[in-house]
Amino acid sequence: MRNEGALVGFTAVTNLADGIGRVALPMAAVGLTSSPALITGVGVTLTLPWLLVSLHAGVLADRGDRRRLAVVANLVRLGAVAVLLAAAMADWLSIPLLYATGLTLGVAEVVASAAIGALVPAAVPAKRLTRANAWIAGAETLMNEFAGPAVGGLLVGIGLSVALGSAGIGFALGAVLLALLVGRFRAAAAPVSGPTSVRGEIREGLAFLWNHRLLRTLNLAVTVLGASWAAWLALLPIYAIQELRLDAAGYGLLISAIGLGGLAGALTVALINRLLGVRWALFADLVGTFLMVLVPAVLPVAWAVGATAFVGGMGGTLWTVNSRTIAQRIVPDRLLGRYTSAGRMLGYGAMPVASLVAGLVAQFAGVRVAFALFAALALVIVVPFFRAVTPAALAESETDHEKVAESGNSTGKTAVI
After folding, report:
1. I need a surface site. Which of 108, 304, 313, 401 has the fewest CB within 10 A?
2. Closest by alpha carbon to 284, among 306, 261, 300, 305?
3. Rounded-to-integer distance, Cα 118 and Cα 327, Å
4. Which residue, 164, 141, 173, is CA-closest to 10?
5. 183 in the Ramachandran plot: left (φ > 0), alpha (ψ -120 to 50) or beta?
6. pLDDT tens digit sequence for 298-326
7. 3-state secondary structure (DSSP) of residue 386
């Protein structure tokens, strides 16, 4: 229980700090320039590292002590915020400095995410993995969708230095919480015949993901679902104003519906798994995402859009919790960092591309057409899902954890479904 509390606490405070930073850095840019391109570029620097360094972060997580790596990443984030805070207090802020800070924070976030995602199975008993993942996902949702942006906006209103200082405290506290973890968090040794170069290790992680039918399908599905979510988020501001005739407060309520749904999913995932089974709990996200992007295309009514956003958010958390637990049971410990990073690169990497495509379609064909396009995209994954995510495959994943423990570390092999 101590380890679970430390991991949930770490997730909460660092996601809160990240949320504050995502508000504070663009707002700092607004005070320096009126160029939309330069201002939006700050957001790009925070997310671009998911595409650029995810695979290499996974190698780092599989080569050394994962807790130590996460602590170092948090201290790097603390240092970056401290430099920016000093510059703000000395009136030395500049766009290049904001970009450098954003990239540093983004890279450190990717590294910390790879390390934490890989150490959870070593910190939490197998029988409590689902519960731990639910609490971690709930903390992510609560802080990312609610507290982070809200607190960030409030603190920036008080003063940029106050916001940056608060983010720094969050990163420092995260490093302290990781020190409370008890156990061994160094990745299992690779087989003697395994790859020794960074490129070889990356290939090994990608090959494991691709050659495992269940994991491959789950990751391809989350790439499609993440693209649909990104399109929804990109299109919603203009849709809320032009189609729904909402003000800023109404738009904020629509966005918050996702977070409310996500929190509900975290609180009910164990019950839903018992009632429906993991397969149908996962399928709920496909349904929820489809409805979330379909309804704005056919029913421009605020309450309907908000209701499906709630359903989509709930399904997203059900997917996150269950897919993480499945992967943590199947993937050998020595590959877990690379697998986690590869999966997140696919999911997060699809988001900026989908946002761009959604914007272009909306520009030339209309916002509703763009929503309809991504609703159709969400349907594409249904058939592959039912073919690969079978009761037999899920039942085998329940025993893969024991198989890996017995033979995975010595042979470098695991069962392939």
Report:
1. 304
2. 261
3. 10
4. 173
5. left
6. 999 999 999 999 999 899 999 999 998 89
7. helix
In the chain, the amino acid numbered 25 is: L
Task: Give every CB contact of residue 140 below 8 A, 6+ residues apart in sequence.
Answer: 11, 15
**Integer Cα distance of 175 and 75 in angstroms:** 7
125-153 burial code (b ≥16 CB/10 A, e <16): eeeebbbbbbbbbbbbbbbbbbbbbebbe
Distance CA(282)–CA(317), nearest Å, equals 9
For 236-299, strand residue ranges (E) read none
Tell me if 328 sits within 8 A of 304, measured CB to CB: no
CA gap 314, 258 in Å, rounded: 7
Residues 6+ apart with CB under 8 A from 97: 83, 84, 87
Q: How far is CA 80 from CA 73, 160, 241, 274, in A?
A: 11, 15, 36, 44
**Residue entry with tokens 């976030």:** 109
Structure tokens given for 375: 């609703």
Between CA 47 and CA 62 the distance in angstroms is 23
227 within 8 A of 350, measured Cβ to Cβ: yes
pLDDT tens profile 207-224: 999 999 999 999 999 999
Question: Are the CB atoms for 19 and 190 separated by under 8 Å?
Answer: no
Q: Which amino acid is at 162?
A: V
